Amino acid sequence: MMFNTARTWMKPDQWPAFARGLLAYGSAEAATRVVRLGAILVVARQISPELLGTAALALSLFEIVRVLTSVGVGQRIIIATDVELASICNAAHRLFWTICLAVMAIQLAVAAIAWTVFQLGDVAAMLAVLSAVYLFMPAGLVHIFLAMRAQKMAATARVAALQNIADAALTVALVLIWPSAWAIVLPKLLTAPIWLIAARGTYQWSPAKDVAAAPTQEFASFGPAILGSEMLNAARIHGDKLVVGALLGTEALGLYYFAFNAGLGITQSFVAACNLVLFPHLAKAGKDQVGQEFRRSFGFGLTLLLPVVIAQAVLAPLYVPIVFGENWIEAVPYVALLAGAALPLYAGAILGAHYRALNTPLSETVLMAAATLAALIGLTVGASFGLAAACLGFGVGLSIILIPAAAIQLLTVSKPIAANV
What we know:
- By secondary structure, the chain is an all-alpha fold.
- The chain has 2 domains: about 15-215, no CATH class; about 220-420, no CATH class.
- Helix content is about 75%, strand content about 0%.
- It contains 17 helices and no strands.
- The protein has helices at about 5-10, 15-45, 50-65, 75-80, 85-115, 120-130, 140-150, 155-175, 180-190, 190-200, 225-250, 250-285, 290-325, 330-340, 340-355, 360-385, 385-410.
- α5 packs antiparallel against α6 (about 120-130), α11 packs parallel to α16 (about 360-385) and α15 (about 340-355) packs antiparallel against α16.
- It is globular.
- The N and C termini lie close together (about 5 Å).
- Residues about 1-10 and about 415-420 have low confidence and may be disordered.
């Protein structure tokens, strides 16, 4: 399930691929957290819950729309054979441009609706400005997925860390100069060129002019299922904020947004990293080894995650007022409640990687549909009793679907052999 005694003392470069990938993303996340913590401290003291709620609404809508770019094209690159790789990448490059431009148009349409129908002028303007992000994405996405296919997780982790650190640094600078919701939103666009330069440096690739692009049908098996899963994830991760804002108001949304980031910030990044690292790892494993690698990796990641979740929940009354200021002491119970949601989210992320590696992404879509529905129902029902009950309902909804699903999968896969992770 974890390292055995002999392998525990190996140098990191001798660790199995999944552990090395987590080490790379963990190190990058640690560096990011140092900078982001400073940014949160400044934002918490400069921005009111109402202004934070406005930024949260704009960013939530942005993230929900952006998920439309996740249509399985990158996943098809990861599982491509060496023979078909060039033609798949040529087609993927073209598809990324088509998809990103289409999603840009959709986001502009959402901005127009926010302005004309809901009279949310600031939110509409923020969405319109953020739509320019899609002009930077296509030129770097093939490089990122090729790096993941080659299991160059340290390189992709550096890209994410660089962008996040730049985002946090720009947020601090803007908040000090211009304390507003825009100071939180604008860095998402300003760091897009940084991401593009770093992404293109992860893997040397250019379209092969003498190779015909693969037909679009090559992406069909992954596309609908991956898009469905990602849309459901976005609905769960960002739709909750829309529900809280609609039922409890902007100020409550600001508290919830703060608590969500303080309680799930570190652990949610770890959960996302597990999914990113595990999928290429399992895709490289032989069919008879996928189940064993899934089980080992699940146990290894859970061993790392569980102590952090417990510490965040138990110590919230101590660190929230000290680190973030007395203004946020009201958010302490929400931070503690939301911290526990990391465990079912982790189970769902690992299961999703397993299903994709088995080329059965539709199973992930069905699971995420059930989990999203349960989480949002729990959140909505809880909101009628207050914000604390809403946070509890969100976590319980996730848990009743994802934890039993993970337990069943772990019991049905092959038992691990003794010597590996």
